[in-house]
Amino acid sequence: DFFGYDVARLDGIFPLDEPFNQQAIDVNRSLELLVEEARRRGIKYLFAPVDPRDLSQLRALGDQQFTLLETRIHYHFNVQIVHYVRLPDHAPDVWTRFREATEEDIPSLAQVARDSVNPYDRFHGDPFFNREDVDRLMTRWVEESVRKNFADLTVVPDVDQPKAFITYRFHKDKWDRWGMNLVQPVLSAVDPEYLGWFTVVGPLLNQHLREQGAQYAFGKTQITLGLDATVHFGKGE
């Protein structure tokens, strides 16, 4: 509805008969039939998140002319651990404070979300989407996050017209079933003027999440963004 055409997602292809080894089967015909069915139903955009170990599906997607959009990395960290960071010399005192975003913050936050382009996310990295639609999507995500439809908490620097934000989903309704209290950072953006704010305010945000009952935070980003080496090699999980 948002983009004005039908979209579908391929969640996976799973063998129902032995051998169940995903790598040992050819799923090309299955995928070909799915594409035909999607086309028959008027689907204009079909995408698929794929585990990089699923070689048979990766091969079939390539054979069916699918294009790689982004390489994701999933991460988690313990918010119960207290981290101390040395404040950058240029960091203003206000960077050590944060507050929850309000409706009045939406214009400046939406501007940051539109301007701080991540060239590796699947919307900015796909030429199928025009920039106007992607900007409109970033704006909507900010609006719905602040209004708590897309996120439970949107945090900003404690200033007027903030130019940085990060959003969280708490997932408290799932904590009992999971047996673990997980929160999820979902969306973030920062203006060049505020580069470094995330690092400075991070320990305070972790403390706030601990006060909400959280044990771990988890999320995903693009491995192409050049993250800290500890994340690449497992120390940061």
- State the order of secondary-structure elements, H for helix, E for strand: EHEHEEHHEEHEHEH
Quote the beta fraction.
15-25%
Q: What's the N-to-C terminus distance?
A: 37 Å
Structural classification: alpha/beta
Q: Average pLDDT across residues?
A: 89
Query: Could you give the order of strands across the largest sheet?
Result: 3-8-7-6-5-4
**C-alpha Rg, in Å?**
20 Å
Number of strands: 8
Low-confidence stretches: 229-237
Q: Could you characterize the architecture of this molecule?
A:
It is a single chain. The protein is of the alpha/beta class and 237 residues long. 30% of the residues lie in helices and 19% in strands. A 6-stranded mixed sheet has the order 3-8-7-6-5-4. Strands 1-2 form a two-stranded parallel ribbon. The chain is globular and about 60 Å long.
Give a concise summary:
This protein is of the alpha/beta class and 237 residues long. It contains seven helices and eight strands, in the order βαβαββααββαβαβα. The protein is 30% helix and 19% strand.
Provide key terms for this protein:
two-stranded parallel ribbon, six-stranded mixed β-sheet, 237 residues, disordered C terminus, 19% strand, alpha/beta, 7 helices, globular
Topology:
Blueprint: E1 6-9, H1 28-40, E2 43-47, H2 55-63, E3 72-78, E4 98-100, H3 106-115, H4 131-146, E5 153-157, E6 164-169, H5 175-178, E7 182-190, H6 197-211, E8 216-222, H7 229-232
